[in-house]
Write a structure and sequence with these properties.
Layout: E1 4-11, E2 17-18, E3 34-41, E4 65-66, H1 71-77, E5 81-82, E6 86-91, H2 97-111, E7 114-118, H3 123-132, E8 140-143, H4 148-158, E9 162-166, H5 183-200, E10 204-209, H6 221-225, E11 228-233, E12 240-248, E13 256-262, E14 265-268, H7 272-277, E15 287-294, E16 297-309, E17 317-320, H8 324-338, E18 345-351, H9 363-375, E19 383-385, E20 388-389, E21 395-396, H10 401-410, E22 415-419, H11 420-423, E23 435-439, H12 442-450
Parallel strand pairs: 6-10, 6-11, 7-8, 7-9, 9-10, 15-19, 17-18, 19-22, 22-23
Antiparallel strand pairs: 1-2, 1-3, 4-5, 11-12, 12-13, 13-14, 15-16, 16-18, 20-21
Helix pairs in contact: 4-5, 8-9, 9-12
The structure holds thymidine-5'-diphosphate (TYD) and magnesium ion.
Magnesium ion (MG) binds near residues 97, 98 and 166.
């Protein structure tokens, strides 16, 4: 094939490609987002120099990890920051990304040379923030610039141990004719940084903003390029923040780290269950403790429900921290299989503390809070429950039952309602410390929860 020069148009929001310019992106429905790009390659001048390796011949490589000094962050990274890896830290503006990274430099900087590149703040602002959160680090150097090529040159010359880029949306390559934050700039800058990280074996943490739909602003491609993607989430007006790995080439993706935003920066929450249930109101209907597994650890969380007479023909349903469709399904099961009628009621579900739970094990506590609110009866304060609810109204077993019960015992709960089939696998000695009840339908579960 002869030389081929092709023009493609790429949407700078979602990365959709089309050979023709269009005003509206058919994929994400944004207007005026297409950018022109030349795609060129020449097939017959290409010389192949690929060699293959036998798996057994490849030298063993032990990942070298740096301790970030923040154990919740280490946990989410899979045990520390891997040398030469590229980590994307993303989250809503103002959630605390810059604060978290500046805080890591405090302990990282004791033994490592850290370079903090900020395209968003001036050196004075950074200094002010560092003073406020008590970060003092002699090995921390700061660059306030956005020229990605110059920054990579600097990294090569200076050879720091860790690089932080805050944020990728402010970085640009001058030779590329599009604005910082656009898909082309973001992609090229991340590729450039990625190459530096891999060739120089320096870990780079990149901050990425999230757009209004909750996706990483700019291209989705960014997620494919990097080794790990961490999301920093939480309600801005609540103080708890949850750090979650959504992709990790060097560890598990379901670990979470819990932080609290204080006036002196982020504080690790070592005992998240305690923190999440500490605000639980006593003797109030529509509140139940759920037990969810996040990664390898159990977390207790308070689920609240409110069921009240609807003033309109169309009842309102709202859910925060719990899947909306799952809630609708549970309401249907409660009506059809257990006889709790909510068809003419507004129903609200809320998981306290800004936690999001998406485990089937939280079906039972959600159902119990809804019934409790509907009947305005108080559930026992010292009782937790977990179990999946099937469409026939049966309570099904869930995994990690032992872990969940251990956590409930640790926090002083006295009663635990689980599915009958789960009960069989629980060792006897637990039963001395907590009353464990196995149930097989919603009605008996509710009866046990108020007894
Ligand atoms: P920041 O780290 O700048 O967010 P991001 O980099 O993700 O945009 O966090 C800013 C928010 O955190 C701001 O709303 C104020 C709050 N904050 C505190 O509550 N306490 C503190 O000590 C600091 C530094 C910030
Ligand atoms: Mg910031």
């Amino acid at each position: 094939m002869a030389n081929k020069n092709k023009t493609v148009y790429i949407c700078n929001v979602c990365g959709y490609q089309t050979p023709k310019w269009a005003g509206k992106c058919p994929d994400c429905n944004e207007w005026n987002t297409f950018e022109e790009q030349q795609e060129s390659f020449s097939a017959n001048t290409h010389v192949s120099n690929i060699v293959s390796l036998k798996l057994t011949d490849i030298e063993e490589f032990s990942e070298h990890r740096y301790d970030t000094g923040i154990s919740e962050l280490n946990r989410v990274l899979g045990g520390g920051l891997v040398k030469g890896s590229v980590v994307l830290l993303s989250g809503d503006p103002g959630i605390g990304k810059s604060t978290l990274l500046l805080q890591t430099t405090h302990s990282l900087g004791i033994t490592k040379k850290v370079l903090y590149v900020s395209g968003e703040e001036s050196p004075h602002q950074l200094k002010l923030r560092a003073e406020r959160i008590g970060v003092y680090c002699e090995n921390l150097s700061i660059i306030c610039d956005t020229d990605a090529l110059a920054i990579c040159e600097f990294i090569k010359k200076d050879m720091p141990d860790v690089v932080i880029i805050d944020s990728i949306q402010t970085m640009c390559i001058k030779e590329i004719n599009s604005l910082p934050g656009s898909i082309t700039q973001v992609r090229e800058c991340s590729n450039l940084l990625m190459r530096s990280a891999k060739t120089l074996n320096i870990p780079i943490i990149i901050v990425g903003h999230v757009n209004k739909d909750g996706n990483i602003a700019g291209p989705k491609v960014l997620e494919h390029i990097v080794d790990s993607v961490l999301y920093f989430e939480g309600e801005k007006n609540l103080s708890y923040r949850i750090l979650r790995a959504v992709k990790n080439r060097y560890g598990s993706t379901n670990e979470i780290g819990v932080f609290e935003m204080k006036d002196k920066g982020l504080k690790e929450v070592k005992n998240p269950s305690q923190a999440l249930i500490s605000g639980k109101p006593k003797s109030v209907s529509g509140s139940c403790i759920a037990s969810v597994i996040e990664g390898s650890r159990p977390i207790l969380a308070e689920v609240q429900g409110l069921v009240c007479q609807s003033g309109f023909g169309n009842p309102r349903r709202m859910s925060t921290g719990f899947d909306y469709n799952r809630m609708s399904l549970l309401i249907a099961v409660l009506e059809k299989r257990a006889g709790y009628f909510m068809g003419n009621c507004d129903v609200y579900v809320n998981v306290a503390g800004g936690l999001k739970i998406d485990e089937p094990a939280s079906d039972l506590p959600v159902a119990l809070t809804l019934i409790s609110s509907l009947k305005d009866e108080v559930l026992r304060d010292d009782c937790i429950s977990f179990g999946e609810i099937g469409l026939a109204g049966e309570i099904r077993s869930v995994s990690f039952a032992e872990l969940r019960i251990k956590e409930a015992i640790r926090l002083g709960f006295k009663k635990c309602i689980i599915s009958e089939s789960n009960l069989k696998e629980i060792p006897k000695d637990y039963k001395n410390e907590i009353e464990i009840i196995g149930v097989n339908n919603i009605r008996s579960a509710y009866y046990e929860a108020i007894k």
